[in-house]
Amino acid sequence: QVQLVESGGGSVQSGGSLRLSCLASGDLYIIYSMAWFRQAPGKEREGISCIRRADAWTKDADSVKGRFTISRDNAQNTLYLQMNSLKPEDTAMYYCAAVASWSCSLNRTDFTYWGQGTQVTVSS
Questions:
Q1: What are phi and psi of 110, to 5 degrees?
Q2: What mean pLDDT comes out for the span 13-38?
Q3: C-alpha angle 68/111/60, rounded to 5°?
Q4: What is the CA radius of gyration of the chain?
Q5: How far apart are CA 38 and CA 74, in angstroms?
Q6: Coil, strand or helix: which one is 108?
Q7: 52 near 102, Cβ under 8 Å?
Q8: Residue 49 and residue 70: Cα distance in Å, rounded?
Q9: What separation in angstroms does the CA of 32 have from each of 17, 28, 55?
Q10: Percentage with pLDDT > 70 across the chain
Q11: Contact present, 36 and 98 (Cβ < 8 Å)
Q12: Cα separation of 27 and 91, whole Å?
């Protein structure tokens, strides 16, 4: 089993920055890809960034390219999401996810393990 715990969410004004963290524990040797998703009220969960643990290959959604950066620190078992130039439409619950697969995707149905989420609120 794998456990994921997110932190770093909060309230920020438009144009501000936040860095989210996801601490992973458990059977991490089975995890090849990790990702960040978000879900706003009344909307479906959206994949925003994915990274492969071994070679740091990444994939980003068009909505966050140039503003958000996903990274990982394997020694610390931690996944990060640096979010810059935040907009009110970025307001959502942000989730960390992991899967035992090399195919880094932004499809929520591809992921097995999920954290509880951390709230990000961006005011105009």
A1: -85, -10
A2: 95
A3: 20
A4: 13
A5: 23
A6: helix
A7: yes
A8: 6
A9: 28, 9, 10
A10: 100
A11: no
A12: 32
